[in-house]
């Protein structure tokens, strides 16, 4: 019994020891990069100006392709997760659900190149990159980690575009079925007949 408790205690402490080693690896690896990236992004926002960035966001929201590729990319890059979703304020009501769907799907693919965008869930990318890094070090990987990160982002943007267009269509369909008039969707609503006023009614013979 005592030996069993000893092994259990060693296993329990071992988990935290491994966590400590991982943290030390982050301190000497990804954390400095993360801090520098965040500082650089905030500096860019201050230099360019929030109004200009918002102007680009408004421009991107007018085109269906840019709306679900460039706009989520700008939102996640500059505002990071979860503040990126506030870029939806530049969109009409019919586009907001689709934009959220696109933006929330991009917070993982973008971390390969820009880890500051979603540091809380960076472990998803690191789990994949660790295996590829091992293969690269052994000389058995057909591509580099940087190339993997780039393709990860490009595929993510393509998926975002498809999801955004599909979600937009579903939103319009459901709104029309429920009789809900969304901003930007007024032209899809059937015209309603205006009842004649009593003064204009034809006399009954």
Automatic annotation (TrEMBL):
- InterPro entries cross-referenced by the UniProt entry: PTS_IID_sorb
Q: For this UniProt entry, what's an example GO CC term?
A: membrane
Q: Which PROSITE patterns match?
A: PTS_EIIC_TYPE_5
- Keywords, sorted A to Z: Membrane, Transmembrane, Transmembrane helix
Record field: transmembrane: 23-45, 65-85, 145-166
**PANTHER family xrefs:** PTS SYSTEM GLUCITOL/SORBITOL-SPECIFIC EIIC COMPONENT, PTS SYSTEM GLUCITOL_SORBITOL-SPECIFIC EIIC COMPONENT
Q: What is this protein called?
A: PTS sorbitol transporter subunit IIC
Gene source species? Proteobacteria bacterium 228
